[in-house]
Amino acid sequence: MYGQQDIRSTGASPTILVVDDELPIIRLCKALLEGAGFVVLEADGSSEGLKICTQHHGPIDLLLTDLVLPPPGFQLATTSNQFPHVNGHELAVRATMIRSGLRIILMSGNPDKDLAGHGIKRGTLPFLAKPFERDRLITLVHTVLAQPAPTLAVENRPRAANDTDWFG
After folding, report:
1. What pairing do the DSSP bridges indicate for beta strands 75-76 and 166-167?
2. Which residue from 3, 17, 90, 94 lies 20 to 30 Å from 50 (Cα-Cα)?
3. Which residues make beta-bridge pairs with 133?
């Protein structure tokens, strides 16, 4: 297992981007993860998370995001708005296109309803149910970071004929 001693002995602590629309959840995750030796970037919502994925010069090893990130209103993703408000699953898809090898953990307070509502089968992506305990969070992060880095060929992303970039 990828333990806390391993993180510190390699000299390079993994960087985790935490995205949620609730500041107390962001602060809790940050405190727990930094206490376990990780570097934590925080984003209040998907728009800020996408900006960090695009503009942060260092590595981002893992995205920990809430699945339900309510947008402030209907938005159209256009070239003039490259950082739209999207749900956590769409954020994960976009972030993996920006950051090759990025690992993902989704979290939600109502996993069965939220996963089904986004067409995600339980067990297909690493998932953390809220509320969670420190050990569950840290163990899941270590487990996901120990997995081989995923690869994504953006140009091979399947798209339906009527696939559009509408969000809301």
Report:
1. antiparallel
2. 3
3. none
Task: Write the pLDDT tens digit of every residue in 79-95.
Answer: 555 666 678 888 888 99
Please give the single-letter amino acid code of residue 56: H
Q: Is residue 155 part of a domain?
A: no
CATH of the domain at 64: 3.40.50.2300
21 touches 146 (CB < 8 A): no
pTM: 0.75
Q: Report the run of H or E that residue 34 belongs to, with start and end.
A: helix 23-35
Q: Hey, what's the torsion of the CAs at 62, 158, 83, 66, to 10 degrees? A: -40
Q: Quick check: is 167 in a domain?
A: no
Domain total of the chain: 1
The amino acid at residue 74 is F
